[in-house]
Amino acid sequence: QVQLVESGGGLVQAGGSLRLSCAASGSFLKINVMAWYRQAPGKQRDLVASITSGGFTNYANSVKGRFTISRDNANNTVYLQMSSLIPEDTAVYFCNVEGTYHFLGTFSAWGQGTQVTVSS
């Protein structure tokens, strides 16, 4: 079983910055992809950014140039540095981790979500 613990959300004014973190723990062999999703009220949960074990990144067009995803493999942690925040970034942010168990195949785990609110 893989558990993800998120932190770093909060209230920030437009133009400000926040850093989200998500730490994975449990019994697994390897984490392949770590990602951040977000979901605003009444909206679908959408991919914000992802990063592979090799360091390849992918970003939603709406956050390119403003957000940076990174990972600390030694600590099984993924970060999302958010800068130049705008009210449209307001959402619950969820981390997602995909990887491989010892002997049990692949997994996909979700964090509990952390609220990010950007005021004008």
Low-confidence stretches: none
In N-to-C order, the SSE pattern is: EEEEEEEEEEE
**CA-based gyration radius:** 14 Å
Portion in strands? over 45%
Strand runs, count: 11
Helix content: under 10%
Protein model, in words:
With 120 residues, the chain is mainly beta. 0% of the residues lie in helices and 62% in strands. The protein has no helices and eleven strands. Strands 2, 4, 5, 6, 9, 10 and 11 form a seven-stranded mixed beta sheet that branches. Strand 7 and strand 8 form a beta hairpin. It starts with a strand and ends with a strand. The model has no long low-confidence stretch (mean pLDDT 96).
Please render the helix and strand layout as text.
Blueprint: E1 2-7, E2 10-13, E3 18-26, E4 30-39, E5 46-52, E6 57-59, E7 67-72, E8 77-82, E9 91-101, E10 105-110, E11 114-119
Parallel strand pairs: 2-11
Antiparallel strand pairs: 1-3, 3-8, 4-5, 4-9, 5-6, 7-8, 9-10, 9-11
